[in-house]
Amino acid sequence: MFSLNILIVEDDSVSALLLQRALEKNNHQIIGIADTGEKALEILQENHSDIVMMDINLAGELDGITTTEIINERFDIPVVYLSASSDAETLNKVVGTNPSAYVIKPFNIRELNMVIELAIFKDRKEKELQKLNNQLEEKVKIRTAELYEANKELTKALEKEREINELKTRIVMNVSHGFKTPLTSILSSAQLLQMYAEKDHPFKQKIAKHGTKIENSVRALNNLLTSVLFFGKADANKMEYKPKKMYLGAFVKELLDTVKAGIENGVVIKTELGALPKTITSDQEILYQTFENLLSNAVKYSKDGGEVRFKLDFQDNFLIGEVKDFGIGIPKSEQSQLFDRFFRAKNVGIVEGSGLGLSIVKKCMEVMNGQIHFESEINKGTTFEVKIPVN
Fold first, then answer.
1. Can you tell me the distance from the alpha carbon of 260 to that of 353, in angstroms, rounded to the nearest whole number?
2. Residue 354 has pLDDT above 70, yes or no
3. Which of 183, 199, 269, 272 might form a disulfide with 311, Cβ 3.0–4.6 angstroms?
4. Mean pLDDT across the chain, nearest whole number?
5. CA nearest 248: which of 284, 295, 272, 296?
6. DSSP secondary structure, 77-121, as one string
7. HSE (CB half, 13 Å, CA atoms) of 256?
8. Is there a contact between 294 and 321 (Cβ–Cβ < 8 Å)?
9. What burial class does residue 93 get, using C-beta atoms within 10 Å of its C-beta: 0-12 exposed, 13-18 middle, 19+ buried?
């Protein structure tokens, strides 16, 4: 067994002497013998001790339990109690001081040595555990401070990003609105040119041709600006669903007239209307964006002179629309990206487009709590179906 520096605190001189001899026989060093708690504290103040053998009943004002409490607080040294008493009241007092061990008198040397070894082992393990806990607490404290700083930086970055996004949205919307007015003027002028071309004029055909080009280009640019404005509102969380009573027949007529006016490839739209109610309650603007983009896309990616089928039906308070074309189709490998902003399939060739149309349709479905499904096959066409709740 390893050698220890031990303080004996015992008011019975005979018992103290016997204990000293027993401990010295096992190569331990006795740094002192105290018969009072006060004297024990004085010895510990001047000398290093690995362990204290403490009698509970002492001669001075401080008993063994009180002295142990002071030792725990000042010196953090393991204490082994020595007592001839093992009654419940004494044991309860002893437990409160967290002793390293408790030995009942009389004791034998072998038992005493075992108790001392266990007391030292317990003390060392507790101190190791405390050290690990302290290290862990320090690491947690450092990590918490790091996370706090990182969170502050992240908050600043997010706030900066929010400000930039707001600025971007304002710029986009202001610029888009700014373009709308001159575009309207250009469109009106192009239509007037075509009216003048109907009269007898040497350049009648050329005026009509270029007037039509201007009109179509303005419509395309106007549609692009409308799409940009749409996402500007969506990104700024200003897009709201505002259902109102609307006349469905007038809505369908306006929709088809607008889409047909922009057809340049001779595609024919065949319409099949089911048992539609005279009026429905929905957001007319969002509903228009949905079907206008689906029909315009179908026309755009159809073959020249081809056909687009538009079906509209009403069932159980749902407006069900189907747009089917027989055009270029969408490659299987790219169908998962179909609703991404600015995505355009690799097979679109020279067909002009912004890649925003289907993204708008998807967003409209989210706002109206609707559903959208599609099927597509290369060179055979694409079918979109939307199911929109209306009242």
1. 17
2. no
3. 272
4. 82
5. 284
6. --EEEEES---HHHHHHHHTT--SEEEESS--HHHHHHHHHHHHH
7. 19
8. yes
9. middle
C-alpha–C-alpha distance, residues 47 and 39, integer Å? 12
HSE-up of residue 381 (Cα within 13 Å, Cβ side): 15
Structure tokens at 198: 């109907």
Residues constituting the chain: 391
| pLDDT score of 193 more than 80 | no
Confidence of residue 95 (pLDDT cuts 50, 70, 90): low
Query: Is the separation of the CB atoms in 76 and 68 below 8 Å?
Result: no
Residue at 296: amino acid letter: S
Tell me if residue 302 falls in helix, strand or coil. coil
List the structure tokens of 368. 């109206």
Contact 373, 263 (CB under 8 A): no
Which one-letter amino acid corresponds to residue 245? K
pLDDT band (50, 70, 90) for residue 382: very high
Contact between residue 370 and residue 388 where contact means Cβ atoms under 8 Å apart: yes
Peptide bond just before 106 cis, omega within 30 deg: yes
Neighbours of 276 (CB within 10 A): 15
Name the one residue in this structure whose structure tokens are 């509970």.
56
Among 288, 299, 290, smallest CA distance to 357 is for 290
pLDDT, tens digit (0-9, with 9 covering 90-100), for 98-151: 666 667 777 777 777 778 888 788 878 888 888 888 888 888 888 888 888 888
Q: Do the beta carbons of residue 287 and residue 367 sit within 8 Å?
A: no
Q: Which CA distances in Å does 309 have to 14, 257, 305, 368, 373?
A: 114, 15, 13, 24, 16
**Which residues make Cβ contacts (< 8 Å) with residue 343, sequence separation at least 6?**
334, 337, 355, 359
